[in-house]
Amino acid sequence: MTTLQARMKDYQRRVDLAENLLLQKSAGNQCGRELDNCFEQYDGEFVVTALIRRAEKSDELTNALKKDLTPRGWEKWNRIAAKNRHVSDDGLAKIAATIQREAEWNSVHIFIPQLEKANDPQCRPFKICRTSADETLTETFHARNLREVTQEILKNWQERTVQGAPYVDMLTTITITTPDGEQFEL
Prior knowledge:
Mean pLDDT: 89
Helix content: 55-70%
Oligomer: single chain
C-alpha cells in the first residue's frame, strides 16, 4: 500500500506538472491526456486550489488558466479555491492523499462487491443514510435481506474514514430503508 507521504509527493508532482503543462499549452504546445490525468486521482479539487493559489502569485499562470478555461470555468475554480482557503498548502497535500486512500479503499471494499451484488437477482437495493453532526451521506447497498445489509454496513463502516476521521462515531445515526419502504435505525 502506498504511504501517505508518497501520495503527498505524488500530489505535489501532479500540481507542478499541471502548472507546467498549462503554461506550455498557453504557448501553443499540445499536452493531450497528460493534463487531464493531473486532476483524476480523486483529489482534483485540491489540485485546482493549489493552481489558483499559484496563479495569484503568477500573472503568466493566471493568463494561461484564463486562456484554457471558459469564464464560467475560471469562476468555478475560484469558488473551489475559496472553499479551501482555510487549508494550508501542506494541508491540501495531506487531504488530497487521504482522499485518494479512502477512494481506493471504497472501491475495493464497497463499490466492487456491491457491483457484483447489484447484478445478483437474489439481492435487492437497501437505502442507507448515515447522519453525523451536520453531515449526511446516503448510499445504496444490495443484499438478500436486512440482516445481510446490516452486517455489511457494520463490517465496512468500522474501517471506513472520511478525510482521516472515523466514519462512524458515537453520535452517528444509521437509517436503513428496505426496498419495501420500511425504516430501521442502527
